[in-house]
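Re: your question about Alpha-macroglobulin-like TED domain-containing protein

S., sorry for the slow reply, the queue was backed up all week. Below is exactly what I fed in.
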Amino acid sequence: MALLLMEAMPEKNDRVTKMIIDSKQKLSDGYQKLTTFETDTGGYEWFGESPGHEALTAYGLMQFNEMKKVLGEVDQGMIDRTTDWILGKRDGKGGFNMNSHGLDSFGSPPPDLSDAYILWVLTSIGKDIDLEKEIKKNIEKAKAQGDS
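Result:
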């Protein structure tokens, strides 16, 4: 919500300016907290313990890219490292290798859904990444399932 507010509202008066300053501070505090969940082996996990969680890391990547639009402090090196970590999880067949021992393994979404979510994030962050194989596989899967 704070991101939308800061992107949409021009700084016109003292009240709006104060609201934007307060929102930026809260966003900055949240950003600092989120960075503590990066694991030693790459990616992000619910409590910052290795191994990283692929879909959660993709969600974090999307959030960090959005935060960067309004916060100057978002570390581009961290964004690049996180992007590289996710790309390193590609399985070579158009999907992504998922950690089967993640904390949400009891209720994990089907692999096709996780693959589609991660692909959506990677295509949304504004980087020039060759995802042709992943896009093709997702289109084929969607057509085969009849819910596209």
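DSSP finds six helices and no strands in the chain. The first helix runs from residue 2 to 8.

Happy to talk it through on Thursday.
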